[in-house]
Specification:
Elements (H helix, E strand, L loop, with lengths): L1 E6 L5 H10 L12 E4 L4 E6 L1 H10 L4 E5 H7 L3 E6 L5 E7 L14 E4 L2 H10 L5 E4 L6 H4 L5 E6 L3 H5 L3 E10 L1 E6 L6 H18 E9 L3 H7 L7 E4 L5 E9 L3 H10 L3 E7 L6
Parallel strand pairs: 1-3, 1-4, 7-8, 7-9
Antiparallel strand pairs: 2-3, 4-11, 5-11, 6-9, 6-10, 12-14, 12-15, 13-14
Bound molecules: adenosine-5'-triphosphate, 1-O-pyrophosphono-5-O-phosphono-alpha-D-ribofuranose and magnesium ion (MG).
Keywords: Amino-acid biosynthesis, ATP-binding, Cytoplasm, Glycosyltransferase, Histidine biosynthesis, Magnesium, Metal-binding, Nucleotide-binding, Transferase
InterPro entries: ATP-PRT_HisG_long, ATP_PRibTrfase_cat, ATP_PRibTrfase_CS, ATP_PRibTrfase_HisG, HisG_C, N-reg_PII-like_a/b, N-reg_PII/ATP_PRibTrfase_C
Protein name: ATP phosphoribosyltransferase
């Protein structure tokens, strides 16, 4: 059985489980369940702490896992990113009280609090900077107020927590993170991993694309399909009225309205948009 590690708690857990369900896998009903078998799909799920997932995958005891890119890099484990999953997006940033520290070079010799010491130390080293890293489990933003650090490096999503602690980000983002599917560095891509990846990709495509149908005068078909080129190529079918054709193409969800405006301008009518429930590219 193909073994997959899934986050059991935190920001990654619920969206990961939802995505796996949409990909057709069984998921646990009781949050205390640690292992779940899905014999129909020949897979076994292990619900583990998000921070530990890269360690298990890197050791090869599980075949794949879902974790954050930031957690993967901080783990130093022998695991690699296989597919970005488009949820739990965040940036990882330096922050300090306003006007106190303005650049990465100014961190030299300061006390820096973080839950991601490897990620931060590697980044500082790449810039020739060393700091006194204070490793904390969470609520890192309070470290400056409480006097154990001069700067922090932490996950920023909306920025609300930082602002509440009277801190401001400075310098470029250390990392742009999101949930990722990971696999052991050493292993070859097996058919189990390939199936999992295709299923997750299918969920991503169904989330990110819609199906667009419209009618267009035959002499405008070329202009219309330049607007909606589809993935491979759009379907163009004749209509009973020979002067018109029907076109069907997948288009990115976030461009739907602009494309409908452009299609209308070239003469397309009866433009319909429908969601994609599932998809295999
Ligand atoms: N607002 C957020 N807060 C924390 N982590 C976030 C947020 N948005 C996305 N993430 C991502 O979630 C992962 C951290 O998950 P983890 O479960 O370790 O922490 P958490 O969601 O803060 O939960 P906990 O309550 O255990 O601290 C990282 O990959 C991080 O980038
Ligand atoms: O930019 P924001 O939207 O405010 O989110 C980012 C904050 O959320 C997380 O903290 P969490 O609530 O998980 O507490 P923790 O620090 O104890 O993990 C993270 O560590 C940041 O502190
Ligand atoms: Mg947290």
């Amino acid at each position: 059985m193909f073994r997959i590690a899934v986050p059991n708690k935190g920001s990654l857990s619920e969206p990961a489980v939802t995505m796996l369900k949409e990909a057709g896998y069984r998921q646990r009903r009781d949050p205390r369940e640690l292992v779940l078998q899905d014999p129909d799909n020949d897979v076994e799920f292990f619900f583990l702490r998000p921070r530990d997932i890269a360690v298990y995958v890197g050791s090869g005891t599980v075949d794949a896992g879902i974790t954050g890119r930031d957690l993967l890099l901080d783990s130093g484990a022998d695991a690699v990113e296989h597919l970005p999953l488009g949820f739990a997006g965040s940036t990882f940033r330096f922050a300090a009280p306003p006007a106190r520290v303005g650049s990465i070079e100014q961190i030299q010799g300061l006390r820096l609090a973080t839950s991601y010491p490897v990620l931060v130390t590697d980044h500082l080293a790449a810039h020739g900077v060393t700091a006194k890293v204070v490793r904390l489990d969470g609520a890192v933003e309070s470290a400056v107020q409480l006097g154990i650090a001069d700067v922090v490096a932490d996950v920023v999503s909306t920025g609300t927590t930082l602002r509440g602690a009277g801190l401001e980000v400075f310098g470029d983002p250390i990392l742009v993170s999101e949930a990722v599917l990971i696999r052991p560095r050493a292993s070859e891509v097996t058919s189990g991993l390939d199936t999992l990846m295709r299923r997750l990709q299918g969920v991503l495509v169904a989330q990110q694309y819609v199906l667009m149908d419209y009618d267009v005068p035959v002499d405008q078909v070329d202009r219309a399909i330049a607007i909606t080129p589809g993935l491979e190529s759009p379907t163009v079918s004749p209509l009973h009225n020979r002067d018109w054709a029907a076109v069907r193409a997948m288009v990115p969800r976030d461009q739907t309205n602009r494309m409908m405006d452009d299609l209308y301008d070239v003469g397309a009518r009866a433009i319909l948009v429908t969601s994609i429930h599932a998809c295999r590219l």
